[in-house]
Amino acid sequence: METLRLALLFVHILGYAALLGGLLVQVREETKVVNPLMRDGIGTAFLAGLLLVGVLESLGSPDHAKIGVKFAVGLVILVLVMVNVRKPAIPQGLYFGLLALTVANIAVAVFWSPVHA
């Protein structure tokens, strides 16, 4: 089960890396779009995250507050990306909002660690 957890965590990280890469590749571009890398990245990260929670539940008691925050932020990113995937351009504010939400979700994963007594 630990091997499955690590494999899902790896895929989850790759998904967020793809999403962030899809965002950062456009930083200097005048027109921002939802590109396939962003779409596939958030889809992969979200699905792998859901599966990872199932595995974590079977291994013990995960931090439900952290999972809830990551789920909510990930769901917002997923919806915003999917709603705008076919549009020829997205507003600068939406682009920077997606970038901020992505970085925030990564920060929650890294810095919100369990409390050790």
Sum up the structure in keywords.
single chain; 117 residues; mainly alpha
What can you see in these coordinates?
The chain crosses the membrane at residues 6-25, 37-55, 67-85, 94-115. This is Integral membrane protein. Keywords: Membrane, Transmembrane, Transmembrane helix. The protein has helices at 2-24, 36-59, 64-83, 92-111. α1 runs antiparallel to α2 (36-59). With 117 residues, it is mainly α. The longest helix is centred in the middle third of the chain and has 24 residues, at 36-59. The model has no long low-confidence stretch (mean pLDDT 95). It is built from 4 helices and no strands. The protein has one domain (2-111). The chain is elongated.
Q: Pairing-aware structural class of the strands and helices?
A: mainly alpha
Number of strands: 0
- In percent, how helical is the residue content? over 70%
Number of domains: 1
Shape: elongated
Q: How much β-strand is present in the residues? A: under 5%
Q: Can you give the mean pLDDT?
A: 95
Major β-sheet, in short?
Answer: none
Q: Report the uncertain regions.
A: none
In whole angstroms, the N-to-C terminal distance is 26 Å
SSE sequence, one letter per element: HHHH
Gyration radius (Cα, Å) is 15 Å
Tally of contiguous helical segments:
4
